[in-house]
Amino acid sequence: MASTTACTEAVPLVYPQEVKNDSARKAYKLKLLKDRPETLFADLYKSGEVSNLIFLTDQPLAWHAAISAHYPSVKKEGICNGWKIKIKEVEDPDTVMTTVNMYKNGTVMVQGNLTPFELDFLLIKERAQQEKSAPTDNNHTLPETDTTPTSGCPAADPEKKEPTGPEPDPQLDRAITDLKVKFIELERELVQLRELISQQPAQDTRVQQDSSAISTELTKLRQDRDSNRRELSTVRTEVRELQQDRESHMARLTALTEEVRELREERRSYRRELTALSEELQERERVKEQLDSHPDHNQNPVTPIESSQNPPTQQPPSTPSSISSPHANPTPRSPPITQMNTTPSPQTNTTPHPSRPAQQRGKPDIVILIDSNGKFIDENKLFPTHTVAKIWCPNTQHAMDLLSEQQLGSPSHIIIHTGSNDLRSQQERVSESLRGVIEKASTTFPNSRVVMSTLLPRKDLHPDTIHRINSNMSRDCILRPNVHLAHHPTLDINCLYDHVHLYKNTVPIFARTLKDVALNRDQSTPRRRSSPAQNPLRPERHPTGPPPRQHPWRQDHPHLLPHHAPLRSHQGSYDYPQARPEPLLSPGVPPQPQRRELHPDPLSYAQAVKRTAGPTLTTTTHVPEPTHTPPHDELRDIQQMLSLLCSHLIGQ
């Protein structure tokens, strides 16, 4: 069908909005055709396409002759109350191009290929005008047709005269006229129905295509529904498994809560024992002060240990001033003094560099085995008063190769931070590698203080993996008396500029923790940064100010503060009092090694209790003050060990 855009003369039939039903449309169209005769109109489908061309004329015979003369190949047929002209193609006479139906009432309907007729309409109209102006022939009859009429109606004869008779009834004439009009409309609708039937196969094909597409979409929707059902079943299974996991985790959490409650009870019992020990130490200190304040009752008593080591004939006469006054000079004539001169004093042992032999000065005192996170650590600034060697140690196997006396010598401190580069390949098997490093360091260097640093968090690994490795390392360190753990709780993944390495401004925090553990310092105590010459001397016995430690039992008992603080000369922040006399050792007491005197290993709980229960006061002039580590330092180590155990048990 040709569209209205290709038409140049046809006027489309546009119905107003008030015309809605078919009868009103027919009446409106008939009125429009009568008002504008011989004007070509385009009748439209509801879809907007052109169905046929139609116009009304008062001379259908003239138009019949004009159309037949205009086209070279036509076929004339008769229809009910009219004529049909089939316009054929010149090249193919068997193909009908356009069909023109002409009715006696003057209606002309064009169907088929409408574009050629629309273009030739003006020429055909001029020829029809010429046919109208030609003289009429009284003998003119209907044009002959080469075929019989297509309908059952007889062919109309315009020249046929009606028989004479009485005058016809006007009502009958009107009825006949109405019937004719209705027949014409029915015939037009029949033609349209035929065209619709001829177009039905194409519409059926389109409907079949649409139904096939709908079936395909329906199949896809069914498949999607089945897949969604399977996914829903999988999700329900996963939810059920998650609920089971949650229940198991809740059960484990309940068990862990009970364990934590038990651990807290044990911690309370340990605190009560520590309180009892501190009270016992306080009582012993009070007794000692009373004995020092009453020299008449403390002139000649001798402890069983010293009486067994020194015969009574060799005891020099003692004076009260030799015990009570720390500034009194020792008598040079007594034999124990001579023995003391051959034994290095504790003060001499606390000076690391001047007391070393000349051949050991070139060897490092402190060895740091560290991976790439130690790039920005300045070992000389970290330990300014010691000889330090920082060795790159990327993994645990390299640490095993370095842990030998041929490689490291005999250092007093060994700091190890490695294993992070093994996490990607070994995962939790790194715990076994670190256990081997701890065992080799402890057995190869039994007199050295070994510091094992925990693994730092990484962005590319789950934190639970690193936490379990650090927990295993903590348990392995506790089993070794000379191995200590350096934990870094303040460093998390926000301190990493990539997946592994620390920001440069967080390296001092990391290095400070290693130094505090290596020097056996309390990490909660603020650091003193003044030089040794500017630091005031510490009081000999009782400090006037509050104690620097934050332990509650030490704040309640300030007289239990240590007489000899742990090693502070590594920082350059403490000088021993020059007015304190050198403690005298009895002939039977062997000198302690210098490394053990600098950093005594923490004792076990049983050893600390046994050490505390032993004699803490000697009344001879040879030992004015005890030479062993003060008991409260041992108790501090015990408390730190218990706190570490509790924290790891709670964290598991």
From TrEMBL:
Gene3D superfamilies: 1.10.287.1490, SGNH hydrolase. Residues 131-151, 201-218 have a biased composition (Polar residues). Residues 338-353, 615-626 have a biased composition (Low complexity). Transmembrane segments: none annotated. Residues 219-236, 281-297 have a biased composition (Basic and acidic residues). Residues 129-173, 201-236, 281-363, 520-599, 611-632 are annotated as: Disordered. This is Platelet-activating factor acetylhydrolase IB subunit beta like. It comes from Dissostichus eleginoides (Patagonian toothfish).
